[in-house]
Recover the amino acids of this structure.
């Protein structure tokens, strides 16, 4: 498989890790869109939110259970935003499910 995030999860490509366990990895985005921009990925390849099923949804739940801990670790005490992009119209650039944690300043309300 030629998936960038699978290679990062495997350690084949270096990343600025902020959290990891045997199921998920969180690392700083190389093109941050906010003062703090962390990506959280499952180590198991899931292409997008469209591929979340009853069989793999516990992994997504694990990610959301860890997001508050990750946000606190990177200093997001005053709030943050969690985003996932899905498909071409959703601007998903890497076809591996990932969640953006954005914060470190007052974010704009406009998302469109």
């Amino acid at each position: 498989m030629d998936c960038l995030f699978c290679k990062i999860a495997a350690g084949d490509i270096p990343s600025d890790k902020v959290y990891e366990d045997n199921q998920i990895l969180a690392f700083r985005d190389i093109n941050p869109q906010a003062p703090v921009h962390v990506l959280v990925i499952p180590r198991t390849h899931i292409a997008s939110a469209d591929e979340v099923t009853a069989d793999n949804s516990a992994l997504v739940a694990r990610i959301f259970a860890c997001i508050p801990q990750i946000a606190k670790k990177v200093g997001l005490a005053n709030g943050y935003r969690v985003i996932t992009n899905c498909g071409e119209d959703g601007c998903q650039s890497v076809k591996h499910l990932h969640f953006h944690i954005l914060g470190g300043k007052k974010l704009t309300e406009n998302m469109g």
About this structure: The chain has two helices and five strands. Strands lie at 17-20, 24-28, 36-42, 80-83, 99-103. Helices lie at 4-10, 57-73.
